[in-house]
Amino acid sequence: TAATTIATAPDTAVNVAHRGASARAPENTIPALELAASHGADVVEFDVQETRDHKLVLMHDTTLARTTNAESVLPGLSPWRVGDLTLAQIRKLDAGSWFSDEYARTRVPTLDEALRAADDSGVGVLLEVKAPELYPGIEQRIVTELRRHPEWVSPQRLVVQSFDWDSMRTFHRLLPSVPIALLGRPSTGQLPEVAKFADQVNPHYTDLSTSYVRRAHDLGLRVLTYTVDSASAMRRLIDYGVDGIVTNRPDVLRSLIDG
Ligand code: G3P
Ligand code: CA
């Protein structure tokens, strides 16, 4: 598989589909991942959390209410926290109908399924460890899962990120061969310390400037930014020198890059 997580030219950027092609398909599902690949994404970003029985699943919110039909299938289990329900309970849910009827009966995927689908689709993965403070030990569980998929333990294909920087220090200690990204914007004063264990910083796009990107690059850090859906903002960020852009609309970024 080609290197998918590293930009190859100065006037381009890695095209990262946010939760899959989530403007057109239900976020954090296999159809969204596959659509992202067909819309020209290089990499698919998704959010990983843990069920009550310690299985790893894709879900952004810490509850299932917004993006599944948990409320009607499991009445009485409000607020439908991911960590309160078993994988068997979660697998009964429909994670597509809330988005459109076309995606009815789409299931919440496991990390295992998502890695297989990404492999089949030829895209890289930006794996976000979401709310790790709710799931003590999730870093080790993700490492164990990745070791079952040795093809993914490669800096060319996978980056692991979190807003929780302590979690990323833990992850790096457990599996140093997989690159780490810190979500958010470390101060320029913090960047040298960050560069000791992280490979990337991923700030919000309104928090960036050319000088910040240059400072990170001088320290050997790559810079990705999220979540950018307008072509004009994408153009501006490429001009800042970012290495990658996380977007709900990978087709828009693909057209921009390909001219
Ligand atoms: O990859 C960046 C982005 O996914 C972080 O924010 O809330 O969409 O997980 P969020
Ligand atoms: Ca995310």
List the helices and strands and how they pair.
Elements: E1 14-18, H1 30-38, E2 43-50, E3 56-58, H2 70-73, H3 87-91, H4 111-121, E4 124-129, H5 138-147, E5 158-162, H6 165-174, E6 180-183, H7 191-194, E7 200-202, H8 210-218, E8 222-225, H9 231-240, E9 244-247, H10 250-258
Parallel strand pairs: 1-2, 1-9, 2-4, 4-5, 5-6, 6-7, 7-8, 8-9
Antiparallel strand pairs: 2-3
Helix pairs in contact: 1-4
The structure holds SN-glycerol-3-phosphate and calcium ion.
Please explain how this structure is put together.
- With about 260 residues, this protein is α/β, with parallel strands linked by helices.
- It has a single domain (about 15-60, about 110-259), classed as TIM Barrel (Alpha-Beta Barrel).
- Helices cover about 30% and strands about 15% of the residues.
- The protein contains ten helices and nine strands.
- It has helices at about 30-40, 70-75, 85-90, 110-120, 140-145, 165-175, 190-195, 210-220, 230-240, 250-259; strands spanning about 15-20, 45-50, 55-60, 125-130, 160, 180-185, 200, 220-225, 245.
- It has an eight-stranded parallel barrel, surrounded by six helices.
- β1 (about 15-20), α1 (about 30-40) and β2 form a beta-alpha-beta unit.
- The longest helix has 11 residues, at about 110-120.
- The chain is globular.
- It starts with 13 loop residues before the first strand and ends with a helix.
- The model has no long low-confidence stretch (mean pLDDT about 95).
- The protein binds SN-glycerol-3-phosphate and calcium ion.
